[in-house]
Amino acid sequence: MLVVEHLTVQLAGHRVLTDVSLSVQKGKMVGVLGQNGSGKTTLLRAIAGDYKVSSGSILIEGQASQMLSPKNRARKLAVCMQNHHVPLHVTVQEAVKLGRYPYDHGWFSRRSKRDDDIVERVMRDTDTIELANRLIGQLSGGEQKRVWLAQSLAQEPSLLLLDEPTNHLDIAQQVAFMNHLHKLQQERELTVVIVLHDVNMMSLYCDEWVLLKQGQVLGTGAVTNLTESLLHEAYGVRFTESLVPPLGKKQFTICP
Ligand SMILES: Nc1ncnc2c1ncn2[C@@H]1O[C@H](COP(=O)(O)OP(=O)(O)OP(=O)(O)O)[C@@H](O)[C@H]1O
């Protein structure tokens, strides 16, 4: 579904990503990990077509990302970055409707019944329907994040790129957000690439991981293959790993 091969990206004359390769199958959720400045956001932005690629290739459903028109790209992939633009004065419903822009035709295009149905459906799926008439500026951080997820889903993407979507959320809100995302991923066979700082959250919800260090891939694989020694190599911090029996998932404890 997504294939990145030997990707190198330079920004302001500095090489930020070097020879990055990864491939993500349809319907899988991949967690991108790594220290601050290791290149996680740059990788997402390069996949989203925001950055020029110095060398290598990015294929989305077999098509070169760079060759897609902005509207075509927006029908295939939706992006929710850390610094998501927040129009505080619009209602939740208006904000979600903006997600239908890839399907507009011309300047004065009218929204169809299908557009309205999709907006309603994604608002139900993300538990934002009750907030429909509230102003964005009056929502909590967690509620706002669910609205951005709804807006992204309104694009009907097959690929969703999320940059630290649970940042600044309390534990309950983090779990609620990840549960929503996981359910949607399963139900719609959504492919998700998600940047997370929380290794344990990644292990609980993702199918695979990619670990970056100084713009290069230190390792990648199924969640069960992530090890304390790789994490130590990436972060310089010691971890001990344990298996949570009912879930069959690894969790990592920091050893200061
Ligand atoms: N537009 C830019 N121009 C020049 N350098 C940039 C630009 N954006 C990022 N960088 C540099 O590229 C490197 C990787 O940045 P990036 O934001 O991708 O890291 P990150 O892993 O997402 O970090 P964080 O966890 O702090 O969000 C950093 O050294 C950063 O300073």
TrEMBL record:
PANTHER family: HEMIN IMPORT ATP-BINDING PROTEIN HMUV
Name of the molecule in the record: Iron complex transport system ATP-binding protein
Key words of the record: ATP-binding, Nucleotide-binding, Translocase, Transport
Pfam family, one: ABC_tran
A GO MF label: ATP binding
Domain of life: Bacteria
PROSITE patterns given in the database record: ABC_TRANSPORTER_1 (PS00211), ABC_TRANSPORTER_2 (PS50893)
Transmembrane intervals: none
Matching InterPro entries: AAA+_ATPase, ABC_transporter-like_ATP-bd, ABC_transporter-like_CS, P-loop_NTPase
Domain ABC transporter, residue spans: 2-239
